[in-house]
């Protein structure tokens, strides 16, 4: 019984080309391939790298020598060897509806931190208690870009979209059951938002939302610093 | 070429049994059957009857003598020969998100009026402008039961559900396009509402929401008058 | 490896605002967050709280000192520290189709009991043996509000809806296989009920049905006592 | 601009092989092909033939000489040149829920008549008024095979399935709106019936249900006459 | 921690009413309820009973004293205390496409045997090798009713439907992957069969197909013996 | 009221690059754009071009001078200014299930003719009468590539796939109703074919099947002529 | 026959609150309501307003006096009384795949122009001819934000997403047939884009994409001008 | 407790009839049946056989004597007793988008090798870094047939389809999450490809793609060698 060693063609020029370095999406990749990759980027001179969807039991199964080379977070299932230098300006607000959405909200936060952008989380802002979002909106509007994370009916995206003039990205989560199971209800709700200009990412795609936000932050601050 | 005359078995005892008289859902019924029914209930001694989903072009195609026997409303596509006596107490609030939802909201209103229950409509309360629903909520809470009508993301149901303690029924509408087309997004959103105890009707089923509200109003007022 | 302590923003005013205290939906919440919450409400002075979807293996994994502070039920996966005071009047009937629907029917029952409302269960009333529901209907009609719980074809909702004048809420269950798997057939059937005024909750949402019933019971009895 | 004359390969031996002669499903066939076929079977010596889904405006557009060769029914959209000889024994009961289901119920009836089998229709038996089906069930149980036709929640199939020991076929109809639109809710409900041994046909497939019933009638009566 | 003992309302009169005794569908029922039921019917005087979807690991977990009271089959997941007396005449043919469909085909067979009807299985008749079904069709046509069991494209149902005049029931199986996963492709294909009069059961519903076949066998043989 | 003139960027090098010239898919294109394109290719020196999905009423509305420059076929809704030179060898077999599938089968045929490849149609080969396909299979196997066109259950693809060793492409058609409406059942069935190596095109995509067949014919005959 | 005059609650403060004035979505609104709105904003002193999804036959049916007050475009179905003042800096690139996508691409363009933002369209850039997008990418990268409009497989979004560092919004269109009908394939493809940070709008939602782009342009240029 | 020994009817003549020997799809087959089959083909004189979807834990559970008779590959889950003789000419290119698609790409490769056809894999060619596919396309075009394997948006199929004139088969993979979960997005995208003549297999059906490619290779090389 034998399987070929995975050969992986990295898009090393991606950072130069689109301002976002390649990341490794770990779900579905064979264990052997993941180990090879973790080893490659554990070496001192290697470029910064971000691993996403790296399950805790997979990471915990790696040798201690390898694990110690990474900053790993179990809730968001992310790991990096080192983050990029922090930008002087620019901040993202990450607004989420419930505690169960935390694994996605934290993936947004960790990815932005890795990319060097400051960010702040506003948790438990579900609209069934409107005072929760209303008490935070002034502070949220001080950010340069807003990411809304919600499952179930995802009504939070429409409410926030009607209260901010900032670029806004919405991430449906797979939190829920029945028709909301796997995030379909939240995705449909966000795509149908009655607030204008709310752009949507795939279900649970916190990484993508962070990249979209980073594209905006770069447009605002790299330009104005010219 | 010949077709059989439709023979229709009325559930005449329905009112006595469940407090709601039978109504005629006209969509999909052959023209000949509709005419027969309209004739039957145009006669002076006939019981009160409500026709729903009776399209304007169908109604307009009936002879004037028949049309004059009915109170017809084109927006809600409803007609009745005469409404039931008005109840002394009890009022429903009908809250809708946008102008395009009017055809359903009005079906709720007309059905309640036919059943003898007072009701008030609150239009254009979509949450992209939160002040709209917030400005009306005190008045809405004076009603005994609340019906929310919305298409697209249907976020209004969750927001209202978090602001009222009254029995609340939500009707998704087929207003929208893309993933919201035909009301699927709104239906899923309402069923997944983060506000507790929001009960849902089929898409565009204003008639059903009015019946659900009438069941509640009857429970409240017929009981307390005993 | 580290994860942030969850910070949870409680909607403490919810009971005052909508007559229903906040509950904790446990599915999908990290273990650490659940433990924090169970600890918080185990303290003597804490407000009444209801935990739903709290799996037996999760609850059993908590320390005995914590478990003893709660009334836990494995079938419905609910726990409370203490229930609210029982109301003097008002009763709900909970009608279910088969034994397999019991986990949802019991969630309805437990939630109502927690909220202080009396309730009675009518099990095994599936319409393939019509005598079962017909033998119970008189007793069911003595209740103030009716909840129907069914999976598969959910035909029970339509039959009961045609036999009672009371407010009626229908909960589809995820019981079934093939096209009925996960409750889609039951949900669609209930939303399409030929009986007027049957309002529907999300699949397996026994908690929501209890809240909807409680809104009605409150409307009937808090009003009439004024 | 030119189009080829349709060439059609008839399965003339079908009747001998499976006891059911080929029928012509007209929906989607080009007008020219339909006219050719109608002409072919209008000739005196031609075999018996049944046309299904032959829309009234299509049939009405044919020359009078052609139309007069057929027995056409607008509601069921069926036409035949002549029916097969009537069998001495054997009868089917066709039970339908509402007036709007009539176009399918009549397709069942017309197809059975064409095939020579006696049949009786029981209309307006929807379960929201249980007395309607209960008043007819004794008579229905005198038939040799039962066909149930219903849209919306299709609860009728389960109720009848629990009240008869006869072979039973269920046809969902496209009657309804929202989640019931195009018959999906009815199809799912019938396939999930809690009554054992209810077999289902495609949505609106009255022709297929009649063929299934005819297969059974043939098994019962051709055998016993041996 | 406590859960209520399940109380089960048996439809004992079902056999007298519809010719099919009640069976116990075990999937989704709590372990405690299953044990109670197995105990109840293990007693000497109890009526015949069939358990379906009784997983091997559940049955194996019961005490030996209980297990010995039943005839259990692991592939079909069925158990009975004793079968009904065999009928003198009447035979069903069960035709299946591939080895993986065996768990359903055997559920058909076991249920028919339990009900007292003779039956024969024709395995591995998939149409990608047409000779397989063609070599068996003469023997299949000697049966009184035919059940076709297939997953994937379920093309077997149409081919058999065009080669037999007997009543024919089709059971889609959940065998397959991609668009065929969980049996959707097979279900749609069977419902759309180009062969007339093929009636369809829910996915994997071998029990239902056996009941449908038994209804037909009863109609043929109980009648002719009169 | 004004609209911009459409500017269209032709992929003129496509023929050189992939052996297939660009074609114009007309559905959804504004009338003005279609007219501009028809005018452009009506000129004597213009390259060969194929228009697909060009509805008869659109084509008939063009001026006679334009129409006379094209070979138009109403059934397949295709038009060309001139076809490419015929190849000396190579032939495709196009097998279809029913008359209603003709509009797709003819699109396959017309596209192949336009591309210079000989082809033959085998109509009305549906498997409900197996003799139809069996009587043609020897002749079909003389072709170099096979295209199967079918709606409904699309069982024909599996049967042909098990009877030929030639490359085989399957096109589901939108012919059917209920679960077969719009071709979903046929698409799923073909993708799940139990015959190995059947490759599938989008629903009604006769043009794509012809291109796939042309890719194969080119591989066989351009190579062997080297 | 009478219908109530629509009463519309404008969100007049929306521009001040979120930087985007309210627009009127015309699809599904009754004719009478549209006329009232067009009249209201035709008056000299009225605020700027944008009507979207205003069908040509509806607009053409309005009196000339009303029509002359608006700048109407039939392809995008948009009308405005006057546009907002043009910004000094900031430009959007609108990249589309095929001619049939033009109606959406133009809605993006018209909405941006109305909001005062410069924009440029890049049509016919479908990836089946890669040279088309590669020849334009340098010019596209000079813009401040990119909108990609595509139907069918929507592969263009991923290709552009991998070639630009700018904020990028993707709009699936309803262009296509079979599985691509109504834009589902394009929506799914864009949400699943392998290029990081591509954010998605609802199907055909050109208006929403323009608003998302305007949020970004405002963030870049209103900030940098401070 | 007993289960019948599976009896399997092999289509031994398949190779002679369609040029492809029967293979054994192991998923869903009972363990006992798999063992019987592995034993049967482990004998020295047995014909060549391919097992697909044979999970590593199942294979590893077989006795060493049985395992040693097979060439097993864990990634592709395939095993053969011996491969067919290699053909002198003919080569397939297998192009895949990401590392996670490797399990399908390798099934294509292994199946082709088993069938005796040379093949080469081109991994990690996702279009988010266009240079990856562009650097390989010349070499890919040297093959006789191309197979594209991709999940998520599957944009690779359209890009390759526009760069090669060779017969091309596309296999969507179940790689992805959210709307891409289980391969639906990839399947829809490939079926909607804007490149002409891309034919599609079921999700994860690497075996089918290899068979389709083998049909083409046989057509090209068995013919030209005549």
Structure description:
By secondary structure, chain A is an alpha/beta fold. Chain A folds into two domains: 14-80; 91-224, Rossmann fold, CATH 3.40.50. Chain A is built from ten helices and nine strands. Chain A has helices at residues 14-18, 31-42, 56-60, 64-67, 102-114, 131-134, 137-140, 155-161, 184-191, 206-224; strands at 23-25, 50-52, 71-73, 78-80, 91-96, 118-122, 145-150, 168-172, 198-200. In chain A, the strands form two sheets. In chain A, strands 6-5-7-8-9 form a five-stranded parallel sheet, with helices on both faces. In chain A, strands 1-2-4-3 form a four-stranded mixed sheet, covered by helices on one side. In chain A, helix 2 (31-42) links the parallel strand 1 (23-25) and strand 2 (50-52). In chain A, helix 5 (102-114) packs parallel to helix 10 (206-224). Chain A starts with 13 loop residues before the first helix and ends with a helix. Mean pLDDT of chain A is 93; it is low at 1-6.
Which pair of protein chains has the largest interface, and what are the residue counts?
A: A-G, 43 and 43 residues
CATH class of the largest domain in chain A: Alpha Beta
CATH architectural category of the largest domain in chain A = 3-Layer(aba) Sandwich
pLDDT < 50 stretches of chain A:
1-6
User: Number of DSSP strands of chain A?
Assistant: 9
Whole-number mean pLDDT of chain A = 93
Q: Strand sequence of the main sheet of chain A, in spatial order?
A: 6-5-7-8-9
CATH fold group of the largest domain in chain A:
Rossmann fold
Largest sheet of chain A: 5 strands, parallel
Shape of chain A: globular
Percent helix of chain A, as a range, is 25-40%
Look at the helices and sheets of chain A and give the structural class: alpha/beta
- Order of helix and strand elements from N to C terminus of chain A: HEHEHHEEEHEHHEHEHEH
Total separate domains of chain A: 2
CA distance, first residue to last residue of chain A: 58 Å
Oligomer: homooctamer
Total helices of chain A: the number is 10
């Amino acid at each position: 019984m034998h399987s070929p060693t995975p050969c992986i063609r990295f898009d090393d020029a991606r950072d130069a080309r689109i301002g976002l370095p390649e990341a490794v999406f770990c779900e579905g990749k064979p264990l052997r391939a993941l180990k090879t990759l973790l080893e490659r980027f554990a070496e001192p001179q290697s470029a910064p790298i971000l691993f996403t969807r790296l399950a805790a039991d997979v990471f915990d199964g790696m040798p201690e020598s390898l694990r110690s080379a990474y900053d790993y977070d179990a809730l968001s299932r992310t790991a990096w060897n080192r983050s990029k230098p922090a930008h002087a300006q620019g901040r993202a607000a990450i607004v989420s509806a419930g505690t169960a959405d935390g694994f996605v909200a934290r993936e947004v936060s960790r990815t932005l931190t890795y990319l060097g952008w400051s960010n702040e989380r506003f948790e438990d802002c579900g609209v069934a208690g409107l005072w929760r979002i209303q008490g935070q909106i002034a502070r949220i509007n001080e950010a340069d870009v807003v990411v809304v994370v919600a499952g179930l009916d995802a009504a939070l995206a429409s409410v926030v979209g009607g209260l901010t003039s900032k670029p806004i990205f919405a991430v449906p989560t797979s939190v829920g059951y029945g028709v909301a199971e796997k995030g379909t209800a939240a995705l449909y709700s966000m795509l149908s938002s009655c607030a204008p200009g709310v752009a949507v990412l795939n279900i649970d795609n916190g990484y993508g939302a962070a990249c979209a936000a980073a594209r905006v932050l770069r447009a605002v601050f790299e330009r104005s610093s010219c």
